[in-house]
């Protein structure tokens, strides 16, 4: 559960990025999904194993999960829910919680910090952000992040500054926090420019030396080094990771790696997340980082539990885990182990972003249906604590009156299924070879069927974020459906919102041929059908924000010539619209 905040790439307003929405082919969108992050792993042939940036950690962290109402909360505990879905899969949801969650950290107070800020000033930090149309160097963004970090320190803390490139030098030694100390750091940071190579291991060594040599102070203190870097180093990456592991295990010096405009490869993220007390945060937009820093600094920098173990009874084993990089390579066993737990920020509605871990379970014995789970950890004072946690059973057939735990596990299971479906699609190289029309159609149908299930589960879980802050996920699903079904005989894809902006000014004939595709033999009738659909979607687009509904069915009056055109997109709730020609268009209801 070590804290990782990676980038599930979204544009302004929660929309999908332009590179995804503008993808004109199946290959293009799959390349976009797999092009943001490397796996860092190779197969037996030495080939890079593909991975989609929409992994389970990124996706789950984009959604809020309702926090169970637990009256007696200690430093660290968890609420467990078990569900058997319609496919017979056993799911276990684990929602960690602590008395330090939300305002608890402020009320109880965080321990004082000894902080070393290591700032990368190598030449590559002078380059601009990949995803920005307006040039701003990575160093400039890193400086802004650093100054934001300073605002979160308080009396009793100590702070130091270590700029590094091919060398590392302490320009501000570890000193007591004060306005004068912050001003000294600000002045030195402002004067820094990018140059030289990158040897991050020198910053690790110097930071450790400064913290271990600092005069001892009474009381419990947290020692942490913040590394603000684009990690453009091939010289000493292995040495850096080894040194960070040694610092966290042997010296209780915890690392926070702020990746400036970089998503580390999956294997490196997994390794950092397994380090005691470690954080990894991907910074792609400085505004979002500063906002998070202002609200979550204390939650991110203070670990509340170490060496967490979750143990099932002998009749069950963990088969697969989701929600943390530590669970990616989970071994099939009755016990799962995680390095660190941190307190969590509560959203205005009381939910927690990414506030659930999910497990697929396998039954291996004749025991009862998992009545309880053993949860144990070592607290920050070194005391080992164990507790028996009851397991709430969730009826998958129930659609109303759900408890917070039931809503959380249903939504999380649906999101995991989305991750697995799009990962299989994104990494399927068979789609790049000729003669795979059947496979393309199968994926198109799979995403159409999933879309209806996905929206249904989110409605039941009372989550409407796919209409606003998380609409990128629905846009990606819709784009894949459009691309994979566009070549299917008799299926005419409906326009996206961007296409509708062209419909208003384009001639009717151009609309029919350019946006909907050639109408075929029944051009007049199909043109009327397409006009009806376009008119309805156009009206909806003016009245509300968010993604447009998909066409579920188009019904042509009995006395009209030509076939009925259908595009199934699921969803039990529908809205029926009929135009003046009697053509009925059925939309799914979001």
UniProtKB/TrEMBL annotation:
Domain annotation VWFA: ranges: 114-297
UniProt name for this protein: VWFA domain-containing protein
Region of interest: Disordered: 1-21, 554-574
Organism superkingdom: Eukaryota
Organism, scientific name: Cymbomonas tetramitiformis
A family per Pfam: VWA
UniProt xrefs under PANTHER family: CALCIUM-ACTIVATED CHLORIDE CHANNEL REGULATOR, ZINC FINGER (C3HC4-TYPE RING FINGER) FAMILY PROTEIN
